[in-house]
Amino acid sequence: MNFDYAFFRDDHGYYLKTDELREYVELINGESAEPYLWPSLNVSGEIVYRIGILADEQNRAADHERLEISLRAKDARRKDFVPLKKEVRTRQIPDGSYTRYELEGVPVIDLQQFGFVGPGLGQFLDDALELRNEEVFIIDLRSNPGGLTSNIEHWLHRFIGDWAEAPAQVWVQLRTNTTRHLARHSKEGEPRWMIDSLFPVMQTGWSRVRSSSGTAPISNPTKVVVLMDSLSASAGEGFVRYLRQIENVVFIGTNTSGIAGDPVKGKLPNSYIGTHWSTNLKLDVESGEFVDREGIGFLPDFWVQSEDALDVALKFIHHYGMGDDN
Description:
Elements (H helix, E strand, L loop, with lengths): L1 E9 L2 E6 L2 E8 L8 E5 L5 E5 L14 E8 L2 E8 L14 E6 L2 E6 L9 H11 L4 E5 L8 H12 L8 E7 L1 H10 L5 H7 L6 E2 L3 E3 L10 E6 L6 H9 L5 E5 L9 E5 L6 E5 L1 E7 L2 E3 L10 E2 L5 H11 L7
Parallel strand pairs: 9-10, 10-14, 14-15, 15-20
Antiparallel strand pairs: 1-2, 1-5, 2-3, 3-6, 4-5, 6-7, 8-9, 11-12, 11-13, 11-18, 16-17, 18-19
Helix pairs in contact: 1-2
């Protein structure tokens, strides 16, 4: 993604404001510009478009370190090269703390992870009842590494006033004694009840194929702005999955981690080398089609650099009057 160039859009196409001129995009890399332009927000919170690509195994970012763009202004044409930069984030060790505060009249909630227990977890659940009466508020899920999905389900129950069914998915789990042993070993020092609940004795092999149907869209009059980035993972990413079923929710930031297989961390018993592996295969179901989010995650509605997301979200809310009474 390149966040230096901000393009606007009118009936004639995408354009770059240059002095008093509008330079319209004709081609990017010799192709239609549409697949390369992503909705974003500028520093004033106004909707713009940025040049970028979504990299995967077939479309590696290294193959597109810069893109050629062809621009037209009246009778003049020119070409330029736009460099791309992959977001690199450094995860801070979360302490599970929860914070609720207000910025520029907008409530903001920030829970660093969805653990069993943690400072403010009870307050996080209680605040859902108050937040449902707000005009607009922000949920900050940047760098949230996950935790218990049940905490998300309880929060949503209080916020929307009903139990939300799990989003539409199909999944299957591979259970092995090795996985269970290494995972339990990595949790030494934790309460025994927690270890037993996380890693119970099960029959080994593939589980039955399970599915959920989802309940979208869920009515919600409160405007919710969700901040996310490439370090939003596991249950943090699961919260995004649930929130996508709810009306009036906007997602700002970058794509989430794409860790959809319930990853397990552990250490080898002799070398203590850290390992990280998945036990599930999961596919989302959207419009009757299977969607594999491994390594891609969920895409935001508006692409914004993670470190700027909160400031830009506030500008976005004020620019479009989202906090005004209707």
